[in-house]
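ok, trying the design again with the full structure, not the truncated one.
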């Protein structure tokens, strides 16, 4: 949820219209959260979930066990996975542009989150900015004080590390 808000804030800084929102399952507590970001050069009038996403960011790689994770994803879309494995290790994503990033490791190295639950959000958004070109990494960094005012230096360090360590 935080990642979609940061991405939307970075897009807004670049003059785009942006919308970010979560979708909770029936088990709201402890269940996986799906979050969406809608970015456009035109005003956004649609206020619904996104059923045909252009891109997918997977912060928790255990969710990849569910083959429906790519449901509706447009062919050729970007799939960015928080993983230390190479993109070839994910055959489920044939037909998509797959990138991986050891975001949890980067977050731990930057002192974000806890040892058992590193906060990989900022690293993933920074990497997504680089591989998608939809927003600049500089806009993501500039949005940090408004969206994640705690640990600004650590979050910026995580973004900068992600820019160098994202692989396809």
């Amino acid at each position: 949820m935080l990642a979609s808000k940061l991405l939307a804030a970075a897009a807004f800084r670049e003059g785009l219209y942006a919308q970010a929102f979560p979708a909770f399952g029936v088990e709201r507590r402890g269940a996986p959260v799906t979050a969406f970001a809608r970015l456009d050069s035109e005003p956004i009038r649609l206020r619904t979930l996104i059923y045909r996403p252009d891109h997918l960011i997977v912060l928790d790689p255990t969710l990849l066990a569910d083959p429906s994770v790519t449901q509706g994803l447009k062919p050729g879309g970007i799939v960015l996975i928080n993983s230390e494995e190479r993109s070839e290790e994910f055959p489920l994503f044939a037909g998509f542009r797959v990138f991986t990033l050891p975001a949890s490791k980067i977050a731990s190295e930057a002192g974000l989150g806890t040892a058992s639950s590193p906060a990989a959000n900022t690293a993933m958004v920074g990497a997504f900015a680089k591989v998608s070109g939809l927003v600049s990494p500089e806009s993501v960094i500039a949005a940090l004080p408004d969206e994640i005012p705690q640990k600004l230096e650590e979050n910026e360090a995580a973004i900068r590390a992600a820019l160098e360590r994202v692989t396809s």
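Keeping the full-length input from now on. The chain has five helices and five strands.
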